[in-house]
Structure formats: structure tokens, C-alpha cells
Design a protein that fits this description.
Blueprint: H1 14-23, H2 33-56, H3 65-75, H4 78-99, E1 102-106, E2 113-117, H5 120-161
Antiparallel strand pairs: 1-2
Helix pairs in contact: 1-4, 2-3, 2-4, 3-5, 4-5
């Protein structure tokens, strides 16, 4: 944005928010689908081991090893679910700011919010960034989020209908 004409503080400009999010250690994970999947699998495996250790403290673990192993397997999906949800919410916020006609900003605090209408050139530039850079990230996150949800729901169905 042209700083002489733009009243929005530098750190609240959508393009700068995108750059900051892209350079962030955690929010840069979904830039490639393969790396995000590998990271989420690592978190899931660690959570599975942790949940398995927690459930092994149960008296019933000795009588129904399969049940508590499956319970740990499906409940540990909550960790990658929450991580992917947080990543989606962050990227979706930037996407909405990039595609918005106006920029809402605060000059010195939450009590003095302002709205600035973007010029046409800036709208086109930020729309291009949103469609080329951010939209594929959101699509990847939605796919991964859906897979985790289906696995979690299938675990719920297994435990609802089978008493093993």
C-alpha cells in the first residue's frame, strides 16, 4: 500500500498480514500439503502414545486391550484436528481481509476502529494474492480437516455400535 495515502497502520494492512503469516513458523506449514500432512501425522503419533499411556492407567485396560487402544487411536485425532482448525482460522481471516472491499483497522486501540476503502489497484492486487496464494492453502486445510473429521466420526460410530 502507498504509505503516504493509506491511513491503515503498517502491521494491519492485509498484504503485510499475509506476509507475516507466511513467514510464521507454524502458519507456514500448510504451504505444501505433503509437509502439513507429515507434521500432523507426527503430532498424531505423539498424541496417540500419550493417550495410550494415559488409558493404560485404567483398571479396565488389562481386560479390554483392543478397546482402549482404539479409544486412544481415535481420541488422539483431536490434536491434529485442533491444529488444522487453528491453521484454517488464521488463513481464513487473512483471506477475508485480502478479498474485502474495505480495511477495518484500529489507530491506537480497540475503541477507535476505522474503515478505509481500498483503491481499485490494491483490490486487484490483494484479490490476486488471495486467489493464487491463500485459496490453495485453505483448500488443502479443508481436505485435511475433512479426512480427520471422517476418521473421528468413524471412531465414534465404531464405539456406538460395537461393544467389544
Amino acid at each position: 500500500m502507498n504509505e503516504s495515502k493509506c491511513p491503515v497502520p503498517r502491521d494491519q494492512q492485509p498484504t503485510n498480514e499475509f506476509i507475516e503469516l507466511s513467514n510464521s513458523r507454524i502458519f507456514s506449514w500448510p504451504k505444501t500439503k505433503k509437509s502439513l500432512i507429515l507434521i500432523l501425522i507426527k503430532f498424531w503419533v505423539v498424541a496417540f502414545v500419550l493417550f495410550l499411556v494415559i488409558s493404560s492407567g485404567s483398571v479396565y485396560f488389562r481386560t479390554s486391550l483392543l478397546r482402549y487402544t482404539l479409544l486412544s487411536f481415535f481420541s488422539s485425532l483431536s490434536i491434529p484436528f485442533l491444529i488444522s482448525l487453528r491453521l484454517y482460522l488464521g488463513w481464513n481471516h487473512v483471506f477475508k481481509r485480502l478479498t474485502s472491499e474495505n480495511v477495518e483497522y484500529e489507530e491506537s486501540g480497540w475503541y477507535d476502529g476505522q474503515v478505509w476503502e481500498k483503491p481499485l489497484v490494491l483490490k486487484e492486487k490483494e484479490s490476486l494474492i488471495a486467489s493464487i496464494e491463500v485459496k490453495p492453502i485453505l483448500n488443502n486445510l479443508i481436505q485435511i480437516f475433512s479426512i480427520i473429521s471422517v476418521l473421528g466420526l468413524s471412531g465414534i460410530l465404531i464405539f456406538q455400535h460395537n461393544n467389544f
